[in-house]
């Protein structure tokens, strides 16, 4: 089936008698997608036909389609393909069902009659799976895997949510606004995608979740409870250090092509936040709010002042299990209490 996903062009399920069942996601740019034009499915789509049959034993299609040559090499004798269209309201076009036999003489008339009855039922099942999977996949892409799971579990009422403790990671691209006066919008979007990709990768590999892209900033959380606060802080810190290192590598590669250096400032904080649905009646955002989020945002403004690319709040620095260096106490706009600010000890970083 084709898929609606920013990374995958389609998904296939392969069943082999006596072997394992495999599910494969075909990434954009992968061999599976690039070679799609060399398949019987593409042939039928191009001719506007919904079914086809190739007598592999007689060599039909073997020279035209690598897949049929592979089946022939494995003893295949007959190959069927049926294209079933989904309802028009579905964004997905439909599903292709293929069946290969190694029976001498290929499929019998009785077997073909069974297949003719079976394929429509399979198509209906595929439609149900596709609709459910597409909804879950797209929701996860736009809200994050953990947040989407909560939404699909029914947490969709405005104001519904609760207080949680979390390590907060706020990453902001340094002096990015100035680039908009030099580069075209398409180039700017490309730069953002490159940096957001590496930030997202290192957040997710440490069990964090990105909640929001805000212009050239990223907000992520690492939820925790009272017993695991240090673990969450260490996960957020590992993400931050990996982000900064990967960002240097990315800038080095872009510099070789004559592109700009784009720095990233990261702030780490630990506190209580409200995690839930916020917004208008017909347009909600599942996110975090609270004083801890505001404080993290204000701390980020100090990165340039202190000439530091990684800053930590007192609550974070005293909880994580690494040596930190005190930088001073600072007023934060809109925050009544002065904030003690830390960085990693030079020997640690």
Automatic annotation (TrEMBL):
It comes from the Bacteria. SMART domains: CYCc (SM00044). InterPro entries: A/G_cyclase, Adenylyl/Guanylyl_Cyclase_3/4, Nucleotide_cyclase. Residues 167-300 form the Guanylate cyclase domain. Its EC number is 4.6.1.1. The keyword Metal-binding does not apply. Keywords: Lyase. Pfam families: Guanylate_cyc (PF00211). GO terms for molecular function: adenylate cyclase activity. This is Adenylate cyclase. The lineage of its organism: Bacteria, Pseudomonadati, Pseudomonadota, Alphaproteobacteria, Hyphomicrobiales.
